Amino acid sequence: MTTEEKIEKKEKVTKEMKGMAFAAAGIFLGVALISYNGEDLSFNSVSTAVETHNLGGRFG
């Protein structure tokens, strides 16, 4: 395997890993939006809710 082939393979793997990370983030955001509950805790407002109801947890 030449140096060029090694570089191309590394670039391909890097692109695939980035794609998987973006796909995972997209799935997480989709699940969080689908399971949205208006009574969940928020970062920018006060809520009386004790637990989070959406499937994304505290960050969803």
Structure notes:
The chain is mostly helical. The protein has a domain at 35-60. Helices cover 53% and strands 0% of the residues. The chain has one helix spanning 3-34. The longest helix has 32 residues, at 3-34. The termini are far apart. The model has no long low-confidence stretch (mean pLDDT 85).
Topology (elements, then pairings):
Elements: H1 3-34
The rounded distance between the terminal residues' Cα atoms is: 45 Å
Order of helix and strand elements from N to C terminus: H
- Helical content class: 40-55%
- Strand fraction equals under 5%
Overall radius of gyration: 19 Å
Record field, number of beta strands? 0
The major β-sheet equals: none
- Helix count from the secondary structure assignment: 1
Structural class by helix and strand composition: mainly alpha
| Average predicted local confidence, pLDDT | 85
**Uncertain spans:** none
The oligomeric state is single chain
